[in-house]
């Protein structure tokens, strides 16, 4: 048996689910508690959170021990969280899991209920266990938050939510602002941007939006839930190049027809020959591939190394698990658009066009800093 | 009135036990200059590290390697949820490591040493790592497999850092002893060129070596020639002692300290054990007093904050400064290093208003990080908490050892006082002193 799909000789792994959940909830005024012995918070804030130094978001670990894990001292977790809530007054509490409590089957939903009963603020569990990628964690966090904070409201015409915005996929300064500008230029006022630059109040008004724009896979579950609960249609795609105007048009059509649309997937008709490849987060990669095709460039093969596939994959897209499958998917490529770290697994002579991705290369994606 | 100043701070005069703060939720400051186990493992030249864990845990270690431009010396085997539920963790661990090594072999890059890091999951599931190693050793007999562990949940047993500082030296063998060679084990940093450790050994015709001097794995293996092993860092003592025992050599535990009496005692122990000429302690202490007094004249009564990142004995460091007239107002630490538990009573009696502050309790996330006065920090964490750019960027004592270390610190304090650093840029960087791309 080969475990090649589990091995990474030289590539890093993507951001994990716990960090994805933290990133999703970072700006919403709550408190995120990771039930982990050590390291989760440091990993997250060192490599995956560009806002940590300048913004005092309440994200903690429990620092739990082998003894607590074996004896099941849930009360200590409850007490510690309650004490912190009373001291810091967050708007809500989100609990995240990690491998050992996952193995022991700790009942986080029951613990959340208990904390909520004691503290009188919403407390919910974000399904995580440290063994999935950030898309899964952020999806679950957005969905769990919306379950508690978003309720039925009158729909306002020509308004939209932007779903799936975290620095993990949009680390570049001004990226969230540009997404808002896009919506506004397409004719939609922004109700909430989930979740950069919007307050808890703004995002909790999500049901007012006439349409939702899903700009990364992290926003997909939330879009599906809002569709189920309020009937809000969603459009999947991120504005880029020649894809910008068709995406705006898709947004307008969805608002008018109340039908969901996947233009980043469906506007790509040509079968790529594999000579040009884009690797990355599925919505971003598919959107850039759509832009290339619409501009008349060589069609890009989309290679996605992340877990969530449902409805995102076009007929010629490749979902690659492990370093070898990524190498295989790029074997015929002359040009690869990807985070610079991928250069290591490309054949000699293959040209890499950099698409730095924080969720992959961490702080390296931010470029060089000042020297000491 | 002496008092507890809140959940995360207490005055020294109100401290009656080394357990300063309760175990609560923990916050992580954006200060990352300390070394983690990846940095430490990279000290073994030509060694390749392989971690076996879920992606969330993997992220911190794999990007540590990436940030130090050492991705080619680090590989991952990813555990998935289904491995837990289907009971395939052992298989994935063995086959994943094997696959990495086969691939390295195919590329002509098979390393002489592989440091394997299973994690808490292996511990909790009772994965028989001995069996995994036996199979790997049978297939790759030319490789030294180092049995590390990344199980931070095991707080009451051998913590991962301490374990690594032991097992990384397991490949050393007892070569014919060279009694003129003294080897430092278990430290991130080699002692400075002018440190007392080097000076004293040189005066007695002996030479200090360490892993830091080794460019190749073959050179590293030659450390087994050393006639004596010494250790200076708290988490390094255990491994040094075990290694010396295994190789049948003498071990001297010589902790980094800023306390004159302790320095004298350690240097006396070193000199007696190795038949070295004793230095003039009076002259050394007088030179230190002069350096510290000059620094005090320069810095004056400005508030000073010390942290436990800068030095493993922050209480003793604070005492040294207080006894030389400095205005030490705060120490940032989360526990008391057993090596200096006896300093607490001194601070209790002589500096009762000195503030001892946690660095991890939740309220610190929102605590003000500015000071009314220009403040000097000794250590990056103190710098961050105080919001000052005037700080000594020092981790775990750096290469300071002995009286020369005291004098160097005095100089660094003056430099920090005179020249403001870019705290925002510097303190988030990982592994101070390592190669860094950030």
Task: Name its key features.
heterodimer, A: 372 residues, alpha/beta, Rossmann fold, four-stranded parallel β-sheet, 38% helix, B: 438 residues, seven-stranded mixed β-sheet, 17 helices
What does this 3D model show about the protein?
The complex is a heterodimer of chains A (372) and B (438). Chain A has 372 residues and is of the alpha/beta class. Chain A has three domains: 17-131, 3-Layer(aba) Sandwich (Rossmann fold), CATH 3.40.50.1980; 159-264, Rossmann fold; 267-365, Rossmann fold, CATH 3.40.50. In chain A, 38% of the residues lie in helices and 15% in strands. Chain A is built from 15 helices and 14 strands. Chain A has helices spanning 17-25, 40-48, 66-71, 74-88, 99-104, 108-119, 134-149, 175-185, 200-204, 220-230, 244-257, 263-266, 282-294, 322-329, 358-361, and strands at residues 7-8, 31-34, 58-61, 93-96, 123-126, 159-163, 189-194, 211-214, 234-236, 276-279, 301-304, 318-319, 335-338, 351-354. In chain A, strands 12-11-10-13-14 form a five-stranded parallel β-sheet, covered by helices on one side. In chain A, strands 3-2-4-5 form a four-stranded parallel β-sheet, with helices on both faces. Chain A has a four-stranded parallel β-sheet with strand order 7-6-8-9, sandwiched between helices. The model of chain A has no long low-confidence stretch (mean pLDDT 94). With 438 residues, chain B is an alpha/beta fold. Chain B has three domains: 4-29 and 284-426, no CATH class; 48-167, Rossmann fold (3-Layer(aba) Sandwich); 178-274, Nitrogenase molybdenum iron protein domain (Rossmann fold, 3-Layer(aba) Sandwich). Chain B is 40% helix and 15% strand. Chain B is built from 17 helices and 15 strands. In chain B, the strands form three sheets. Chain B has a seven-stranded mixed β-sheet, sandwiched between helices. In chain B, strands 4-3-5-6 form a four-stranded parallel β-sheet, sandwiched between helices. In chain B, strands 8-7-9-10 form a four-stranded parallel β-sheet. In chain B, helix 7 runs parallel beside helix 10 (234-247). At the A-B interface, strand 1, helix 1, helix 2, strand 3 and helix 3 of A face helix 2, strand 4, helix 4, helix 5 and helix 17 of B. Strand 1 of chain A pairs antiparallel with strand 4 (74-78) of chain B, so a sheet runs across the interface.
């Amino acid at each position: 048996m080969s475990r090649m799909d589990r091995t990474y000789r030289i590539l890093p792994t993507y951001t994990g689910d716990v960090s994805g959940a933290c990133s999703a909830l970072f700006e919403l005024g709550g408190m995120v508690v990771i039930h982990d012995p050590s390291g989760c918070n440091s990993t997250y804030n060192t490599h995956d959170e560009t806002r940590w130094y300048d913004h005092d978001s309440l994200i903690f670990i429990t620092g739990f021990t082998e003894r607590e894990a074996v004896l099941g001292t849930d009360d200590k977790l409850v007490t510690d969280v309650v004490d912190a809530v009373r001291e810091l007054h967050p708007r809500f509490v989100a609990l995240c899991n990690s491998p050992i409590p996952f193995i022991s089957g700790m009942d986080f939903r029951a613990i959340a209920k208990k904390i909520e009963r004691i503290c009188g603020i919403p407390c919910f569990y974000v399904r995580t266990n440290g063994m999935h990628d950030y898309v899964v964690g952020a999806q679950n966090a957005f969905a769990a938050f919306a379950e508690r904070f978003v309720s039925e409201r009158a729909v306002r015409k020509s308004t939209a939510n932007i779903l799936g915005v975290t620095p993990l996929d949009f680390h570049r300064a001004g990226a969230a602002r540009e997404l808002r500008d896009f919506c506004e230029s397409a004719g939609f006022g922004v109700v909430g941007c989930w979740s950069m630059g919007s307050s808890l109040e703004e995002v909790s008004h999500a049901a007012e939006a006439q349409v939702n724009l899903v700009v990364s896979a992290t926003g997909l579950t939330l879009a599906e839930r809002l569709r189920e609960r309020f009937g809000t249609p969603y459009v999947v795609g991120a504005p880029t190049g020649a894809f910008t105007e068709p995406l705006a048009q898709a947004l307008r059509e969805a608002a008018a027809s109340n039908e969901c649309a996947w233009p980043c997937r469906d506007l790509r008709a040509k079968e790529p020959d594999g000579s040009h490849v884009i690797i990355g987060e599925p919505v971003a990669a598919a959107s850039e591939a759509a832009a290339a095709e619409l501009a008349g460039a060589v069609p890009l093969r989309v290679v996605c190394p992340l877990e969530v596939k449902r409805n995102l994959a076009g007929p010629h897209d490749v979902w690659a698990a492990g370093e070898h499958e990524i190498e295989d998917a790029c074997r015929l490529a002359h040009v690869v658009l990807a985070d610079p770290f991928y250069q290591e697994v490309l054949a000699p002579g293959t040209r890499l066009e950099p698409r730095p991705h924080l969720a992959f290369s961490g702080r390296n994606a931010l470029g060089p800093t000042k020297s000491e | 009135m002496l008092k507890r100043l809140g959940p995360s701070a207490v005055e020294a005069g109100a401290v009656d036990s080394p357990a300063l703060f309760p175990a609560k939720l923990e916050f992580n400051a954006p200060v990352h200059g300390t070394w983690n186990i990846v940095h430490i493992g990279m000290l073994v030249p030509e060694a390749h590290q392989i971690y076996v864990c879920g992606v969330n845990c993997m992220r911190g270690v794999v990007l540590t390697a990436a940030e130090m431009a050492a991705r080619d010396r680090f590989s991952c085997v990813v555990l998935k949820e289904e491995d837990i539920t289907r009971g395939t963790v052992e298989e994935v661990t063995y086959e994943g490591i094997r696959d990495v090594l086969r691939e390295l072999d195919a590329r002509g890059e098979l390393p002489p040493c592989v440091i394997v890091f299973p994690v808490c999951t292996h511990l909790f599931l009772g994965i028989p790592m001995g069996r995994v190693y036996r199979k790997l050793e049978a297939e790759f007999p030319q490789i030294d497999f180092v049995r590390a562990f990344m199980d931070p949940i095991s707080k009451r047993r051998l913590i991962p850092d301490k374990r690594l500082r032991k097992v990384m030296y397991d490949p050393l063998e007892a070569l014919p002893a060279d009694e003129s060679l003294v080897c430092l084990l278990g430290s991130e940093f080699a002692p400075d060129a002018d440190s007392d450790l080097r000076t004293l050994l040189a005066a007695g015709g002996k030479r200090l070596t360490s892993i830091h001097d080794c460019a190749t794995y073959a050179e590293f293996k030659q450390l087994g020639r050393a006639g004596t092993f010494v250790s200076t860092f708290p988490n390094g003592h255990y491994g040094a002692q075990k290694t010396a025992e295994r190789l049948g050599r003498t071990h001297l535990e010589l902790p980094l300290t800023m306390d004159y009496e302790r320095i004298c005692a350690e240097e006396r122990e070193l000199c007696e054990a190795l038949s070295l000429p004793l230095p003039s302690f009076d002259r050394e202490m007088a030179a230190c007093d002069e350096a510290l007094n000059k620094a005090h004249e320069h810095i004056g009564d400005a508030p000073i904050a010390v942290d436990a990142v800068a030095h493993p004995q922050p209480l003793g460091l604070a005492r040294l400064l207080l006894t030389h007239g400095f205005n030490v107002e705060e120490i940032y630490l989360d526990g008391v290093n057993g090596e200096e538990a006896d300093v607490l009573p001194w601070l209790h009696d002589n500096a009762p208003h000195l503030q001892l502050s946690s660095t991890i309790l939740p309220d610190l996330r929102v605590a003000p990080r500015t000071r009314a006065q220009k403040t000097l920090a000794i250590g990056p964490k103190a710098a961050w908490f105080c919001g000052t750019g005037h700080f000594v960027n020092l981790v775990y004592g750096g290469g300071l050892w002995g009286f020369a270390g005291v004098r160097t610190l005095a100089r660094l304090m003056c430099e920090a006082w005179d020249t403001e650093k870019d705290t925002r840029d510097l303190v988030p960087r990982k592994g101070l002193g390592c190669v860094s791309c950030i």
